[in-house]
Amino acid sequence: MAWAHAHGIEHLLNDPGKPTRNAYIESFNGKFRDECLNEHWFETLAQARDEITAWRRTYNEQRPHSGIGRIPPAAFAAQHLLQKVT
Fold first, then answer.
1. Which of 31, 34, 69, 86 is the most exposed place for a label (fewest CB within 10 A)?
2. CA-based end-to-end distance of the chain
3. Residues 6+ apart with CB under 8 A from 21
């Protein structure tokens, strides 16, 4: 919280017991925990960084997401950029 405050970032919290107010991030957090954090026993910070980076790359570059037409976010972003150019 101190870092956010020092950088002029306002930290907003949902009301306790109201996860539906930010369902997108709650869904992401659940997937991250189930698919990455619960699957590995991190013995070093470097190992944690490597495993999390690999999971993030798969999540963003390979894994299809139902909310954006069953394609990975990286492909969706590339399509969006092409549409803006043309």
1. 86
2. 42
3. 14, 15
| pLDDT of res. 86 | 65
Full DSSP string of 13-74: -PPTT-GGGGHHHHHHHHHHHHHTGGG----SHHHHHHHHHHHHHHHHHTS-BGGGTSB-HH
What is the rounded CA–CA span in Å between residue 60 and residue 73? 5
Residues 6+ apart with CB under 8 A from 14: 21, 22
Per-residue pLDDT tens, the chain, 86 aa: give them.
788 889 999 888 888 888 788 888 888 999 999 999 999 999 999 999 999 999 999 999 999 999 899 999 999 999 988 887 76
Which amino acid makes up residue 82?
A: L
The pLDDT, as a whole number, for residue 14 is 81
Evaluate whether 60 touches 72 at the Cβ level (below 8 Å).
Answer: yes
